[in-house]
């Protein structure tokens, strides 16, 4: 993997460890010569992961919709800041630039971006590894809900296993580097035929 897209909060949340883990992820990525692709902002966990990469002289590619430029949230010290017209263009560009995806703690935007990339993988539009850095069990309830989707027949277990999870940066990157996408189709048949 040469580049990883990281989706995360534009705020820090109320747990200092989330910020520390975002910085650590960035630092470890840079040390492994993995470039960061992210939303281009200097605020919250987004800024923290970018600063982590930059602190180790890594490369950071931000993708920012033009309407956010006027809010002065753009990071000033990126390798490259790519301005796009819409949130949809942003996700498409981030997908084009990266070899994998990691979700850190965040809100609606983080989940929306994460699930769109996961859905694209489920549909076979890409075969990239998709990871969750489960800092302090932040995503435990979501992972339980995803298990409920499997239990209730709305999601195949093989698609559930596309989500690589760890609370450790090095372990998550190892899982992503060794990931092989499933070869089965998305559609669930009646009676699990």
UniProtKB/TrEMBL annotation:
Keyword Hydrolase in annotation: yes
EC number(s) given by UniProt: 3.2.2.n1
UniProt keyword annotation of Ribosomal protein present: no
Catalytic activity reported: AMP + H2O = D-ribose 5-phosphate + adenine
Keywords, sorted A to Z: Cytokinin biosynthesis, Hydrolase
Entries under SUPFAM superfamilies matching the protein: MCP/YpsA-like
Pfam families: Lysine_decarbox
Record InterPro entries: LOG (IPR005269), LOG_fam (IPR031100)
Similarity remark: Belongs to the LOG family.
Protein name in UniProt: Cytokinin riboside 5'-monophosphate phosphoribohydrolase
Organism: Flavobacterium ranwuense
Organism placement in taxonomy: Bacteria, Pseudomonadati, Bacteroidota, Flavobacteriia, Flavobacteriales
